[in-house]
Write a structure and sequence with these properties.
The complex is a heterodimer. Chain A contains 24 helices and no strands. Chain A has helices at 2-20, 25-43, 48-54, 57-73, 78-89, 94-111, 114-132, 137-151, 159-168, 172-197, 199-202, 209-213, 217-220, 224-247, 251-266, 270-276, 279-297, 300-310, 316-333, 336-352, 358-371, 380-389, 398-422, 424-427. Chain B is of the alpha+beta class. In chain B, helix 5 (74-84) runs antiparallel to helix 6 (104-123). The chains are: A mainly alpha, B alpha+beta.
Chain lengths: 429, 124
């Protein structure tokens, strides 16, 4: 019992520090991981070797590969280029701009890291808003919410999906056949709701619409040859993702091989390129794996799973719905990555006790993905756009986010729940 | 650049054009690396600061003072201009009392004319 209590205290303390932002989440997780291993040695429930075994290198490899590809693409100006095109297509009409930028951000974030996409699209969004003389806040909020929502559609779209796919051995195509159809409906509903909520701010036509048409996408793309090279490699990687299951190759190998190919082809200044890699994210993941590994060996997750099995007299579909909403609520107030990493061993324990956990994996993906929309700290993309907006005249406040993001979270979870019930037999396979 | 002094003539801050422009222009310009694709800044071109922004006292807008002593070497003066991305450098003496302003051109001219007289001496 003591190991269980100690490991729970360490994990809970970490979540508390991450939630209150007393410490940067990576520092909190690394400190917690070290404490967990130390405590494990003292009370004999965890060791260095077990900690290393707890780290899912498939997840880290896939993330690293994709991050390197983005780090190569970033300095070419490709993201500016795409955002400028979206601005031109909108013809300076604010509501259409919201749709265009939201769509572009979503499509990019389905294949690339959510946070990086938002980091690179947001400055151009602010620029276009300033040229039009409109507030950037609605556009930035829409970009974060829509990219969070859209990212749920693919295996590489968002970190919880990478984790779930690795743990449940789901393929890239499983996400396209199970998650994508539901996400398309949910995403369209989110877009409609955003358009409706921001109709007052974005309804007025700007007098400066012509200035947006003067933006020159070709000049925004600084290094066309490199951009083309990286996009070719990225396209090749996506094609391989479609058949990775048939080839019996893991997505992480494809991503790392693509990163290696792009590096060899582009041959960038390695030091500068590596500075763009988000090491803090990778370290955060590794530390969380070690932390949750401690919870597992201390028997906490097994106890939780036993508790859940006892609740199995409820119909499985109700259990799945409860999973969506509980995970969504937790993901809104804490980061969705630790929640997902903690839920995975619980679901695995349920699988061992004979429960069909296939629908639960999808419930976890939907809850973690859509729940992050609820609050300003729900997902990293939200934090990023809020931080960037502080440089404009209309900073995004937590209150504004609750007014605009929470309705989107509730609507997306509600629609996902309905579709979940309808598609339950299919999701169970 | 304008130096800001207190009643006793001591330098307390400096005010640059960019500080004034930041009253109308948001800080986002630092987020984007290049602007050559923007041919028309639209609404930004015609924006004027709000009455509230215009009424703000200078101490809220100014930057902390950076100055050199009147005996400061030319290379140090130029290095400071370069480091802090300034066009002019306040010169102080007797404590913090402002005694002059050295511009980038002043410092450049002094440096180059120093070279010329040095060259003349070596020829002689």
């Amino acid at each position: 019992v003591i190991p269980a209590i100690v490991s729970l205290l360490i994990f809970g303390g970490c979540l508390y520090l991450i939630f209150t932002e007393r410490l940067h989440r990576t520092i909190a997780a690394v400190a917690g991981a070290a404490l967990m291993v130390l405590a494990g040695r003292v009370w004999g429930f965890y060791s260095e070797d077990m900690a290393i075994e707890a780290i899912d290198f498939h997840t880290l490899g896939l993330l690293l590969g994709m991050i390197v590809l983005v780090a190569l693409l970033e300095p070419t100006g490709f993201f500016q280029y795409v955002a400028v095109w979206a601005g031109r297509w909108s013809q300076g009409r604010p509501l259409r701009l919201l749709v265009m930028l939201g769509t572009v951000t979503t499509v990019l974030s389905m294949f690339l890291d959510n946070v990086t996409t938002v980091v690179l699209i947001a400055p151009v969004t602010i620029l276009i808003s300033e040229i039009l003389g409109i507030s950037a806040a609605p556009l930035l909020i829409a970009e974060a919410l829509l990219s969070n929502t859209g990212g749920v559609a693919t295996l590489v779209g968002d970190p919880p999906n990478v984790l779930i796919a690795s743990a449940a051995e789901l393929s890239f195509n499983d996400f396209l056949t199970h998650s994508l159809p539901i996400v398309v409906v949910v995403w369209l509903a989110a877009l409609a709701l955003l358009r409706y909520m921001f109709r007052a701010e974005l309804g007025r036509q700007s007098a400066e619409a012509d200035a947006v048409l003067q933006l020159n996408p070709a000049e925004a793309l600084d290094d066309r040859p490199t951009a083309i090279k990286v996009l070719i490699v990225l396209g090749g990687a996506l094609l391989l993702f479609f058949v990775h299951d048939q080839l019996h190759v893991s997505p992480s190998l494809i991503a790392l091989a693509a990163a290696a190919a792009a590096l060899a082809w582009v041959r960038p200044d390695v030091h500068r390129m590596l500075q763009r890699v988000e090491w803090s994210v990778l370290l955060f993941f590794a530390a969380l794996f070690v932390l949750v590994g401690g919870l597992e060996t201390a028997g906490v997750l097994e106890a939780l799973a036993r508790l859940l099995v006892r609740g199995q007299h409820v119909p499985p579909v109700v259990f799945g719905l409860a999973m969506i909403w509980v995970v969504a609520a937790l993901s809104a107030v804490v980061d969705n990555i630790p929640i997902t990493i903690a839920m995975i061993p619980v679901i695995q324990a349920l699988a061992e006790s004979g429960v069909n956990v296939n629908p639960l994996w999808w419930a976890l993906a939907f809850g973690a993905g859509f729940g992050g929309n609820g609050t300003i700290i729900g997902s990293t993309a939200n934090i990023v756009v809020a931080t960037v907006s502080e440089r404009t005249r209309t900073p995004i406040t937590s209150a504004l986010w609750n007014k605009r993001g929470l309705p989107v979270m509730l609507l997306t979870c509600a629609i996902a729940s309905v579709l979940y019930v309808v598609a339950f037999p299919y999701l169970s396979r | 650049m304008l130096p800001v002094v207190d009643g006793a003539g001591r330098l307390v801050g400096i005010l640059q054009l960019r500080d004034l422009l930041s009253l109308v222009m948001p800080d986002f310009v630092r987020l984007i690396e290049d602007f050559d694709f923007v041919h028309d800044f639209g609404a930004l071109e015609t924006r004027v600061p709000s009455a509230e922004a215009m009424a703000r006292p200078i101490r809220e807008v100014m930057e902390p003072p950076l100055s050199v002593d009147e005996n400061c070497g030319l290379v140090r003066a130029f290095a400071l201009l370069h480091q802090h991305d300034l066009h002019d450098l306040p010169v102080v003496a007797y404590g913090d009392r402002l005694v002059g302003i050295a511009s980038r051109v002043d410092i450049g001219t002094a440096l180059l004319s120093g070279w010329r007289s040095a060259a003349r001496e070596t020829v002689e």
